[in-house]
Amino acid sequence: MSITPRTSTTLTQFLIEQRRRFPGASGDFNALILDVAMACKAIAKSVAYGALADMLGNHPGDGSGSVNVQGETQKKLDVLSNDLFIRMNEWGGHLAGMASEEMDGPYPIPEGLQRGKYLLVFDPLDGSSNIDVNVSVGSIFSVLRAPRAVVEGGALTTTDFFQSGAEQVAAGYALYGPTTMLVLSVGQGVHGFTLDPVMGEFMLTHADLKVPEDTQEFAINASNARFWEAPVKRYVDECLAGKTGPRGKDFNMRWIASMVAEAHRILMRGGVFMYPRDTKEPEKPGRLRLLYEANPIGFIMEQAGGRASTGRQAVLQVQPTSLHQRIGLVFGSKNEVERIERYHTEPVKIENGNPLFAERSLFRD
Ligand code: F6P
After folding, report:
1. For the chain, which ranges sit under pLDDT 50?
2. What is the whole-number distance in angstroms between the Cα of residue 196 and the centre of ligand 1?
């Protein structure tokens, strides 16, 4: 069977066209995105080979296991993907430093390599509990500007990364699914590229993606229901009540446990994703991480006309206070996310209909 490509714009061509809007641009940014794309292609290859290349299971392979700064057991592919991101991005001269889910602290560009004006923050392999069962996983990345002092040779510190999501220069993710896709925003909409595995090129296949404003599909890990706050419980209960409830329509539910895959589904057909703050581990203000999960996905959602929130405020407005900070996250179709935010500000009605007390939330921001 011969395959006729449906598109002829490569990621490189797309980036060059974007750059023409900024005649003074050096080309560093484009080169950085191409390095990130190269890391994603290398990860896609390892994911695709799976057991054939001994890629499944925990790291290290002797079964003793290794644990990241979050206390999570690292998979072989977590560690390999992190190494690939570092190796592909440290040498190009575009970065002053990196930070990742898999590293305790920031990674400065080694002595002897040229420093650049950007910072790269990433989750090299999101949803990695899915690796061993051959379900989609992905990489998430965020590009920030480095402080001038660091670009000029000063020490890289953790606080250099404490920039709100609104300050991101670009964000994106790669999805290693039935096809490998790179979804990218450089602050002018969201565009999706599909990897042509023979040419080794990301081709523009999904220009100017938009999240539908309304949806009848939600995603949440319902095993946590007993830990949810009242506004989240109210929202889900109303969805479950379907046609016979206050929403007057039936809802569908999905949970892949791979946020990149959920984000991609929502970009394609709408929906709402919730990993809200809950009382399961009260000392943790959420499950997902702000800098390399919530912010880049939030940027993509907002650039596609959707919304991303903690439930109480726009995610992109949150001022980070630590590198691996966790946060409650709700994103997707705008009208549903706004509804969930509204529920966080309204008194909760008790079953018999009496608004007994205004239980907004157990937590305060
Ligand atoms: O670490 C992030 C992540 O793997 C997300 O990709 C995913 O949405 C979530 O964790 C799954 O969490 P749980 O195991 O609680 O369903």
Report:
1. 355-362, 364-365
2. 28
